[in-house]
C-alpha cells in the first residue's frame, strides 16, 4: 500500500466490509471518514473514532440525509477517494441505499479523484430494463438487489467514461461472512475488503486505472450492459430525473 496519506470516505462503515476497510486504511496511516446510519451505530464504532477517524451520520434511505452529508463533506477538507460500501440486501431500502445514495454522492461531491463502488456477482442476474421509467427508486416496495447492483456497476463505468480525470471502478468483494453475507459464506473476509482499499489508496499502476470491474485485484468482465453506453445514458437520465441532480 502506498505511503501517501489519502483522505478517504467509507460509507456504511459500522460493521462488515466497510468497517474492515476503514480499520485497515486507518492502520495504514490514512485519514478516514466513516459513515453510519444513526447515532446508535455511531456508538458502535468508538474504536475507529479513537484512532482519529472523522464521522458523518445519516440514513442513506433518506435523500435529504444524503444531501446533508454531501454538504458537510464539501465544507470539510477535500476527499481523495470514496468507497461506496453501504448496501442493503433486501427490502424497500434496496434502491434508495444501493443506487440512489451513491449516485447523489457522486454528483454532489466533485473533489474525489478515486471512486470505488461495491458491486456483487449478483449483478449478473440484474435486468437492463429497456425502460427504467417503471423502477421503484423511492423504495415504496421491496427492490431487486440484483438490479441495484447492475445499476451501480453501470454507474461506475459511466463515471469512468464521463469523468476522465477520475478513477472509477466497481468491486465484487465476493460472498463473505459478514452480517449481510451470513456466517456460512464461502469467500475470504480479508480478501473481501483489500481490493477496494487498494483502488482507493495505492499508487500501483494497476490501481491507477479506471472503468474496471474487479474481484480480488483481478479485472473481470461484468454484465454486458455495464459498458453499453446507451444503457449507461438511460440510467443516468433516469437517476437525474428522479433526484433532480445531474452528474
At a glance:
The protein has helices spanning 16-27, 39-44, 46-50, 63-75, 94-108, 145-162, 191-201, 229-243, and strands at residues 7-10, 31-36, 54-57, 81-84, 114-118, 167-171, 213-215, 218-220.
List keywords for this structure.
8-stranded mixed sheet; alpha/beta; 8 strands; 8 helices; single chain; 247 residues
Task: Write structural notes for this entry.
- The protein is of the alpha/beta class.
- It contains eight helices and eight strands, in the order βαβααβαβαβαβαββα.
- The chain has helices spanning 16-27, 39-44, 46-50, 63-75, 94-108, 145-162, 191-201, 229-243; strands at 7-10, 31-36, 54-57, 81-84, 114-118, 167-171, 213-215, 218-220.
- An eight-stranded mixed beta sheet has the order 3-2-1-4-5-6-7-8, sandwiched between helices.
Portion of residues in helices?
A: 25-40%
User: Which word captures the global form?
Assistant: globular
Beta strands, count: 8
Run of helices and strands: EHEHHEHEHEHEHEEH
- SS-based class: alpha/beta
Strand content: 5-15%
What is the gyration radius calculated from CA atoms?
16 Å
Q: What's the mean pLDDT score?
A: 92
Arrangement of strands in the largest sheet: 3-2-1-4-5-6-7-8
Amino acid at each position: 500500500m502506498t505511503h501517501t496519506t489519502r483522505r478517504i470516505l467509507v460509507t456504511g462503515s459500522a460493521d462488515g466490509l466497510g468497517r474492515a476497510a476503514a480499520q485497515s486504511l486507518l492502520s495504514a496511516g490514512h485519514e478516514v471518514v466513516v459513515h453510519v446510519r444513526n447515532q446508535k451505530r455511531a456508538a458502535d464504532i468508538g474504536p475507529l473514532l479513537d484512532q482519529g477517524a472523522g464521522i458523518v451520520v445519516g440514513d442513506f434511505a433518506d435523500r435529504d440525509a444524503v444531501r446533508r452529508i454531501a454538504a458537510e463533506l464539501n465544507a470539510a477538507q477535500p476527499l481523495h477517494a470514496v468507497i461506496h460500501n453501504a448496501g442493503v440486501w433486501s427490502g424497500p431500502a434496496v434502491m434508495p441505499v444501493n443506487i440512489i445514495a451513491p449516485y447523489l454522492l457522486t454528483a454532489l461531491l466533485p473533489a474525489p479523484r478515486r471512486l470505488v463502488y461495491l458491486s456483487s456477482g449478483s449483478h449478473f442476474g440484474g435486468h437492463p430494463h429497456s425502460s427504467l421509467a417503471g423502477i421503484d427508486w423511492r423504495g415504496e416496495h421491496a427492490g431487486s438487489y440484483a438490479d441495484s447492483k447492475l445499476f451501480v456497476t453501470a454507474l461506475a463505468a459511466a463515471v469512468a467514461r464521463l469523468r476522465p480525470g477520475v478513477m472509477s471502478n466497481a468491486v465484487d468483494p465476493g460472498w463473505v461472512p459478514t452480517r449481510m453475507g451470513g456466517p456460512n459464506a464461502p469467500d475470504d473476509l480479508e480478501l473481501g475488503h483489500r481490493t477496494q482499499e487498494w483502488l482507493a489508496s495505492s499508487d500501483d499502476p494497476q490501481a491507477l486505472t479506471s472503468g474496471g470491474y474487479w474481484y480480488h485485484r483481478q479485472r473481470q468482465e461484468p454484465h454486458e450492459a455495464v459498458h453499453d453506453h446507451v444503457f449507461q445514458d438511460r440510467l443516468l437520465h433516469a437517476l437525474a430525473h428522479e433526484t433532480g441532480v445531474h452528474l
